[in-house]
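Anyone up for a design puzzle?
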């Protein structure tokens, strides 16, 4: 499995917050899947390239929708992210170990499915 990078750039008036995101790339039956447990988002396709593109679209839609609803940091907190800052929000994803502890299905997948883990920088619009 390739070591692919997913770049998601979101430009807002108030700037961007940079964080890191662990992506899991694996194959199931005849499909390639890229999964971000920290966001519970995935992309899929017949090839890894299609899965990466599908994931990028899912990530962009997640950020676009939650920004439009003004709920991005609420949703990230619900997903276990550490959200802090009064004037300017900062968000850090849960550790890989925490994700495994809190999600038995994810833990099982990590233990039983051949996969690649990619640590990927991610940019999230920052509120002023």
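Challenge accepted. My sequence:
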């Amino acid at each position: 499995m390739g070591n692919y990078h997913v770049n998601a750039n979101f430009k807002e008036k108030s700037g961007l917050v940079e964080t890191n995101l662990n992506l899991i790339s694996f194959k199931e039956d005849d499909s390639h899947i890229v999964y971000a447990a920290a966001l519970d988002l995935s992309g899929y396709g017949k090839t890894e390239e299609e899965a990466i593109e599908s994931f990028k679209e899912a990530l962009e839609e997640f950020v676009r929708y939650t920004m439009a609803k003004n709920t991005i940091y609420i949703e990230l907190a619900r997903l276990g992210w550490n959200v802090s800052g009064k004037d300017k929000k900062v968000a850090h994803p849960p550790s890989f170990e925490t994700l495994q502890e809190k999600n038995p299905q994810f833990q099982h997948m990590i233990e039983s499915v051949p996969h690649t883990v990619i640590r990927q920088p991610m940019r999230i619009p920052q509120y002023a």
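A detail worth pointing out: The chain has one domain: 16-125.
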